[in-house]
Amino acid sequence: MPQFGAEETAALLTPAAAADALADVLRAGLDPESCPQRSALPVPGGGELLLMPAAAGAYAGVKIAGVAPGNPALGLPRITGSYLLMDGPTLRPLALFDGAALTALRTPAVSALALRHLAPAGRALRMVLFGSGPQAYGHLEAVLGARELSGVVVVGRNPVSARKLTAHARALGVPARTGVPADVAEADLVLCCTTAREPLFDGRLVAPAVTVVAVGSHEPEARETDTALVRRAAVYVESRAAALREAGDLLVPEAEGAIGPGHINGTLADLVAGRMPAAGAPGSPQLFKSVGMAWEDLAVAVAMYRAAGGATARGSCAT
After folding, report:
1. Closest to 216 (Cα-Cα) out of 284, 266, 170, 157
2. Signal peptide position in this chain (predicted)?
3. First CA to last CA distance, the chain
4. In angstroms, rounded to a whole number, what is the distance separating the alpha carbons of residues 222 and 246?
5. Domain extents in the chain
6. Does the structure show a pLDDT above 70 at 308?
């Protein structure tokens, strides 16, 4: 069975190719609403062990991921783990991928797919990027594959890391600087890729028709966006069931009585299928809230396996 380390896993697909793989499985009929929920087990030291299985079409797979908040202080990655891809009919192991590298690609790819449908096209966009870790780097690359950027403002807790990310953006040809949360007032696109548990910015500052993507949490009590933004935004998610279990960005405003469960306008599958869900009030911001789902890991792992020379005639990854 071939095994792919972090660098090998990361090199197999671009974010755009991973986004294509996600779109393909949705077009083929996969229903995210029917996918199993993740299992989470607290571990000593404040960490969490996640188990994310999925089976679709000719393949099955499972991601075992660790979330260790104390790791960065030790010089270790916050996200660890492995992804085992298996043949669906026989459950024979086919490949083992680095789970952290797969996640670092999968999450930006999901965001990029949403942005293909939600972010304005035909003009360069001003982006505010919250975060300066691996997901922030991945999202910068993914957005550049989906839209033209006129500039990037990086808002991060660690000034040194934020400056490194701005230098990286400039190396990619994008004007960039560090900034503050209030810079969202001048943004066309806001991306939240953090471990924050409280809102990162004042949602009242976000202009009409701005697209906001929040990917940092999958816990009911944690959120990156505030009630003011969610209440006025058209909201899109990967799955209504998953969002109403795990998306604190929506569950906290609902607990406050600011919104109801019907506040979700549409899903990623709706967007890909062109079902054109309601877009909210005229000129309202658009919010895509991602919690991360096992079907996404499977779709990207299958695409990686094929890119690495695995069997190419095994059928589509669809239910």
Report:
1. 157
2. none
3. 25
4. 9
5. 3-103+294-307, 111-289
6. yes
Tokens of 153: 């403002």
Residues in the chain: 319
CATH class of the region 111-289: alpha beta
| pLDDT value of residue 316 | 32
- Coil, strand or helix at 130: strand
Q: Which residues contact 35 (CB under 8 A, 6 or more apart)?
A: 54, 239, 242, 293, 294, 295
Gap between the Cα atoms of 80 and 105, Å rounded? 14
The answer as to CATH 3.30.1780.10 being correct for domain 3-103+294-307 is yes
Residue 116 · residue 142 · CB < 8 Å? no
**Calpha distance 45→204 (Å, rounded):** 37
Q: What is the pTM of this model?
A: 0.91
> Is 50 exceeded by the pLDDT of residue 318?
no
DSSP category for residue 38: P
Average pLDDT, the chain: 91
